[in-house]
Write a structure and sequence with these properties.
This protein has about 350 residues and is α+β, with helices and mostly antiparallel strands. The protein contains 13 helices and ten strands. Among the domains are: about 160 residues, 2-Layer Sandwich (Creatine Kinase, Chain A, domain 2); about 90 residues, no CATH class. The strands form two sheets. An eight-stranded antiparallel β-sheet has the order 2-3-4-5-1-8-10-9, with helices on one face. Strands 6-7 form a two-stranded antiparallel ribbon.
C-alpha cells in the first residue's frame, strides 16, 4: 500500500499546501547532504555482505525518526520494485537514476508527504534530501542540519578534520551539500538573456542543469541551479552565495516578463492561448512539445492571462506525462507512438478536471 501511495500521484503532498515564496518563478528548493559511515567501505567498493549490513544499520536508525508532524519514514527496497516503479520514483525526484539502477542493497526512506527522501547505498551510504515549496534556501538548510545532527548522534560519519565529510565523488568532499532551486525562466529564454547570464553563473561557482539534474536536458524552460563547490566554505556561506544569485535571476526574469508584456502583449497572448488550445484539443503530443506548451500555459497563469487554473498544473503534468507514469496508468508497455496518444489524452482530461473544479 505504501508503494502505491508514493507512485500513484504525480504531485507530492508537500507541493499541494499552497504556494511558497517567489513560487511564480522558483518552483522548489532542495538541500541534499552526502554522508558515509566510518566503519564501512564506500558503496562503490563494498562487497554485497557489507552493503547489506550498511542498509540494515542505517534503515533501522532512520525508522526511529519522528518528524515534526509526528510521522515516521517508510522504507522502499530497490530490489522489491520493478523497473517502472523505480522509474516513477525518479520522475518524482524521490530517488536518483543511480539508485534506481542498483539491483541489490539499495533503498529509500520517504516521509508520508515526500518532502524528506533518504537514499541508502546510493553513490554514498546516505543521501539525505529535503524539499520545500518556492524559494526557501535558509529554511531548507536549517531543517537539513537538524536532520543531519540527529543522524550524527546515531551514526559515526567518515570525516576528516582538514577535508570535511568524505564522499565517493571528490566533488562532494567537504560539506557534502548540494543546495539547489528549480526555476521557471521562460522570459529570459525568449529574450535570449539567459545565454548571457549562464557564463556569469558558472564563474561564481554555480552550475545550471536540467530538471533531472546532472546530464539532463533543460525541458519546459525549467532550470536547476545549484552550488558546484562543496569544499572550502561552510554551508551557510554556500547557501548565501546561491541565494544572492537566485535573487538576481528572479529580478531579471520578472523584468523580462514585464518588458515582453509592454512591448509584445499581443504576441504573448497569442503564444499563451495557442499553447492552451493545443493542449486542450490535441490527440497526439510528443514529450518535448508537451513541456514547451505547458511552460507557455504556466507563464500565462503567472501573468494573469489565464484564470481559473492552478499554477501547479505545470509541476503536475511535467511529471504525469513522463514515460514511467504513462506506463503506470496504462498498466502495460507502450510504444513511443502509443505514449504520445496517451499523453495527449491525459492532458485533455486534466485540463477538463481543472475547468470543472473552477465552475
Amino acid at each position: 500500500m505504501s508503494l502505491q501511495r508514493f507512485i500513484s500521484e504525480a504531485i507530492s503532498p508537500w507541493m499541494k499546501s499552497g504556494p511558497g515564496p517567489d513560487s511564480d518563478i522558483v518552483l522548489s528548493t532542495r538541500i541534499r547532504l552526502a554522508r558515509n559511515m566510518e566503519q564501512y567501505p564506500f558503496p562503490v567498493f563494498a562487497p554485497p555482505e557489507m552493503a547489506e549490513a550498511v542498509l540494515n544499520d542505517t534503515a533501522a536508525e532512520f525508522s526511529s525518526i519522528r518528524l515534526q508532524t509526528g510521522s515516521s519514514l517508510e522504507r522502499l527496497n530497490m530490489d522489491d520494485l520493478n523497473s517502472n516503479e523505480k522509474r516513477v520514483l525518479v520522475e518524482k525526484h524521490l530517488i536518483s537514476p543511480y539508485l534506481a539502477e542498483r539491483s541489490q542493497s539499495g533503498a529509500v526512506m520517504l516521509s508520508p508527504d515526500e518532502s524528506v527522501s533518504i537514499m541508502l547505498n546510493e553513490e554514498d551510504h546516505i543521501r539525505m534530501q529535503t524539499l520545500f515549496r518556492g524559494f526557501q534556501l535558509s529554511e531548507g538548510l536549517d531543517f537539513s542540519n537538524k536532520l543531519d545532527d540527529w543522524t550524527e548522534e546515531k551514526i559515526t560519519y567518515a570525516f576528516d578534520e582538514k577535508r570535511g565529510y568524505l564522499t565517493s565523488c571528490p566533488t562532494n568532499v567537504g560539506t557534502g551539500m548540494r543546495a539547489s532551486v528549480m526555476m521557471h525562466l521562460p522570459a529570459l529564454v525568449m529574450t535570449r538573456q539567459l545565454n548571457r547570464i549562464l557564463p556569469a553563473i558558472h564563474q561564481l561557482g554555480l552550475v545550471v542543469r536540467g530538471i533531472y539534474g546532472e546530464g539532463s536536458e533543460a525541458q519546459g524552460n525549467l532550470f536547476q541551479i545549484s552550488n558546484q563547490m562543496t569544499l572550502g566554505k561552510p554551508e551557510e556561506d554556500i547557501v548565501e552565495d546561491l541565494k544572492g544569485v537566485v535573487t538576481q535571476i528572479i529580478r531579471q526574469e520578472r523584468m523580462a516578463r514585464d518588458a515582453l508584456m509592454r512591448s509584445s502583449r499581443t504576441y504573448m497572448e497569442d503564444k499563451v492561448f495557442r499553447s492552451f488550445g493545443i493542449l486542450k484539443n490535441s490527440r497526439i503530443m510528443e514529450s518535448k512539445e508537451a513541456t514547451e506548451r505547458l511552460s507557455d500555459v504556466r507563464l500565462g497563469i503567472d501573468l494573469d492571462l489565464i484564470k481559473g487554473i492552478s499554477g501547479n498544473i505545470l509541476n503536475e503534468l511535467m511529471i504525469l506525462t513522463q514515460p514511467g507514469f504513462l506506463r503506470q496508468y496504462a498498466e502495460k508497455e507502450l510504444r513511443a507512438d502509443e505514449r504520445d496518444v496517451r499523453r495527449a489524452a491525459l492532458i485533455r482530461e486534466r485540463m477538463e478536471l481543472e475547468k470543472q473544479s473552477d465552475e
